[in-house]
Amino acid sequence: MEIDVQNLDDAIAIAECIPSTRKGTVEIRPVLELTGLPTDP
């Protein structure tokens, strides 16, 4: 699942609401959007 947020605090707040975090883990990591790359036909 990918969720777009403005900052780490927002990501943590959303992750805390995911039910599976009570017994499991959620990974939060930055994603870099690259522009100008060719697209697949």
Could you walk me through the main structural features you see in this protein, from its secondary elements to its overall organization?
By secondary structure, this protein is mostly helical. The protein has one domain. Helices cover 20% and strands 0% of the residues. The protein contains one helix and no strands. The two termini are 25 Å apart. The model has no long low-confidence stretch (mean pLDDT 87).
Q: Any low-confidence stretches, pLDDT <50, length ≥5?
A: none
**Secondary structural class:** mainly alpha
H/E element order: H
Q: If you compute it from the alpha carbons, what radius of gyration comes out, rounded to the nearest whole angstrom?
A: 14 Å
* Relative helix content: 10-25%
Measured between the Cα atoms of the first and last residue, the distance is: 25 Å
**Number of discrete helical segments:** 1
- Number of separate domains: 1
Number of strands: 0
Defining traits:
41 residues, mainly alpha, 1 helix, elongated
Outline the fold blueprint:
Blueprint: H1 8-15
Short overview:
The chain is mainly α and 41 residues long. The chain is built from one helix and no strands.
